[in-house]
Amino acid sequence: MNLVESREEGEFRAQVQAWMREHLRGDFEPLRGCHGPGTPGFDVALAKRWEQTLASAGWVGIGWPREVGGTDLPLGRQIIFHEEYVRGGGPGRLGHIGEQLLAPTLIDHGTPEQKARFLPGIRAGTEYWAQGYSEPGAGSDLANVRTRARRDAASDEWLIDGQKVWTSWAQESDWIFVLARSEEGSVRHQGLTLLLVPLHQPGIEIRPIRQMTGSAEFNEVFFDGARTEGSLHLGAPGQGWKVAMALLGYERGVSTLGQQAQFRHELDLVIAAARANGAARDPVLRQRIAEAAMGLATLRFHALRVLGAAAGAMPREAWTAKYAWSNWRRDLGRLAIDVLGAAGDVVNGDADRARLQQLWLGSRADTIYAGTNEIQLNLIAERALGMPR
Amino acid sequence: MDLVLNDDQQLIAETAADFLAEVCDSRAMRAAADSADGFDRALWRRIGEMGWCGVQASEHEGGLGLGWVELALLQEQLGRRLACVPYFDSVALAASLLRRVGTNGAGLLAEATAGTAVVVVALEATDGVARQLADGGWRLDGCWPQVPAAGWADHLLLCARDANEAPVLLATATARVRIRPLHTIDATRRSAELHADGLTLPADACLSRGAALEPALQGARDLAAIALAAEQLGVAQQCLDLTLAHTAQRVQFGQAIAGFQAVKHRCAQMLVMIEAARSAVYGAAAVADTDPDPATLAFHATQALCAATEAAQFGAQEAIQLHGGVGFTWEYDVQLYFKRAQAASVRLGALSRWRERIAAQLLDSLP
Question: Which of A5, A183, A229, A251 is catalytic?
């Protein structure tokens, strides 16, 4: 147990801060604090240039091993980078799905050819990935996937038919990893394959879904005879479920600490709004603001426990992390709109107010995606507590 | 940076858990709670012999030289077993206060950390007036209406006000104060009403006073809050463990009720709160070991206390509910945890006051 930062870590922190100050300015200024695609005014082309700026400074793949082009920074420094990135106003990472989800899976389960082909594009910020898991009939019940993949002997390609949904940022991505049923007649977890599929092709249609926030970062993705090379299955054909689950396991990575730095920024906006409009004098709101701040500090301590656990271990506290942060943030969203009061209903062009309104609405998704509250509680009961299935 | 227990800390927690499972099981705990003064003296003696009272004290003070993390681990296990001993009162609160006042308290501190004497702080007086006498001694009048563990104490540290309304901290042997034991719903932690009627004390009974005393009291309360939170964490954990054991063997509709989603989700929510509380408690204890500034200590102590209290109160309430009818009986232990969770939730004052302090940090300072 160690909460004290070493001198070297302190220097590294200062280095990241300085880099952010030097680079997130000028042309990149409009990206400051932007959550991501879907945020009003988010300039995707600019965000991709920003990703490339990060990449050329060596800030992409900081947790990857050196032999695949990473910098293999110790955990403590990865945490510091993610914290200072967000603190410095760094925008939502367009490369997140590629860097944080697909890349670790490729590193563990990919063939040498797949690694050589895909990791450099992710590392350079030139290729972007989307995740094709959920379907209209396979949400919480992901094993009910119906999208079909079959091998076309003539062309040695995979042919894919079906539909994915809630696909974040598909409209801005180049590739998608698709969980598909590759063995005819198979059911549930059997007979699934995880395929790496180029998005820009005639067999794929992407339709944005307008969300309750008014923006559209989710999409429906339709596959109608879409194609990918015969070698582009990640893990063995038929073993897709195992690989797909391993991929989800990387989601509780060090980037959660960067996410918390974003939460801190949101909490600061709530506090600033309360001070500005007098809500800070309301005794009940004062209690809730104190609770929110302390809850966030607990999320940070929690992440430091989970991340410190032995690699591959899944202690009890790891199972509760997603439920804890998503419900904390949903409560923060409610607090934000309560602090705004009646003015919370009015859209007036004020950026900070818009941010709080978006927080209130957007946080309703947190307890749904990546395993709903209800699925999380099932997992906690069954996996962490060993209660009967 | 990490917040994972090291091997030694893991060993301390496991050893304490095993020891208390043996000597402080439900039967032993209930026997102590039902005894005349509710104090498990045999257990307290063994705790003293093992050095637990000095776990966090420096080696210079005769302690083990470990930290608040280790103290919290012991306190957690004591909470889990509702041990009827004044560990929190004497070791976490009184010793912390003694460490922060002048050298007059050194003798008492040595006794508290050696476990040879129980020292209890009486914080809240309804009317405690200390008048300084011509010879420098003190004459004390007052009532401290509800002081937990006071009946078990060898020495008392009484908070009072002097003629100028400035705070004074006076030490006295318990025997010199009039003590009226109170009947408490939480039988595992007795309280007493204290009276001083013209009690005269020598000049060196005054351990601290005035401007120096306020921050000492505040700091000691904040540190103690981390230990109290650890105790509540133990309460919450035991509530879950009892509930898991019960629901695994209770059969209704032809199956163990642990298989029903309504039951599973409630247990899962208990674990969410417990693990959050554990993170808050271990984190706050680790912060306490880094010699934090007062505002930082206050923030994390409050954080731990709020998180652990919530976990304990929710855990105890759901434990009763999920035990069903037997949860409402005197025979089953969950009711004891329910009572302790409530008593401990106000042990250091209402949580709303703690939260308000943090709100003031966040909202009232200049930006």
Answer: A251
SS3 A73: coil
Q: Residues of A with CB below 8 A from B69's CB?
A: 1
Give the tens place of pLDDT for each residue, B122-171.
998 888 999 999 999 999 999 999 999 999 999 999 999 999 999 999 99
Give the residue from B208, B207, B239 showing the smallest Cα distance to B81. B239
Chain A from 233 to 272: CB within 8 A of any B CB: 271-272
How is residue A31 annotated by DSSP? G
* Residues above pLDDT 70, as percent of chain A: 97
Q: What is the 3-state secondary structure of A288-316?
A: HHHHHHHHHHHHHHHHHHHHHCCCCCCCH
DSSP letter string, B190-257: -EEEEEEEEEEE-GGGEEEEGGGHHHHHHHHHHHHHHHHHHHHHHHHHHHHHHHHHHHHH-EETTEEG
> Does the reported pTM lie above 0.90?
yes
CA pair distance B342, B314, nearest whole angstrom: 10
B278 chain-A contacts, CB cut-off 8 A: 305, 317
Q: What are the residue ranges of helices labelled H in A125-254? A: 240-249
Beta bridge partners of A239: A192
The rounded distance, in Å, linking the Cα atoms of B267 and B232 is: 17
Taking residue A209's Cβ as centre, other Cβ atoms within 10 Å add up to 12
Per-residue pLDDT, averaged over A70-98, amounts to 90
The dihedral built from the CA positions of residue A120, A122, A127 and A130, taken in this order, carries a sign that is positive
Residues of B in contact with A316 (CB under 8 A): 271, 275
Which DSSP helix (H) or strand (E) runs through A139?
Answer: none
| Cα gap B78→B88, rounded to integer Å | 9
ipTM of the complex: 0.96
User: What does chain A come to in residues?
Assistant: 389
Q: How far apart are CA A340 and CA A331, in angstroms?
A: 14
User: Biggest alpha carbon distance in chain B?
Assistant: 80
Give the pLDDT confidence of A160-214 residue by residue, as tens digits.
Answer: 999 999 998 898 999 999 999 999 999 999 999 999 999 999 999 999 999 999 8
Tokens of B6: 């090291």
Phi-psi region of B136 (alpha: psi -120 to 50; beta: other; left: phi over 0): left
User: What phi, psi does B145 have (nearest 5°)?
Assistant: -75, -20
In angstroms, rounded to a whole number, what is the distance separating the alpha carbons of residues B287 and B35?
Answer: 38
| Rounded Cα–Cα distance for residues A158 and A197 (Å) | 9
Give me the torsion for CA of B143, B145, B148, B150, rounded to 10°.
30
- What distance separates the 2 farthest-apart alpha carbons in chain A? 73
Residues 6 or more apart from A353 whose CB is under 8 A from it? A273, A340, A343, A344
> DSSP E strands: which ranges in chain B?
119-122, 129-132, 138-148, 155-161, 167-173, 178-181, 191-201, 206-209, 251-252, 255-256
| A302: nearest CA partner in chain B | B279
CB proximity B343 to A under 8 Å: no
Asked if B6's CB is within 8 angstroms of A305's CB, the reply is: no
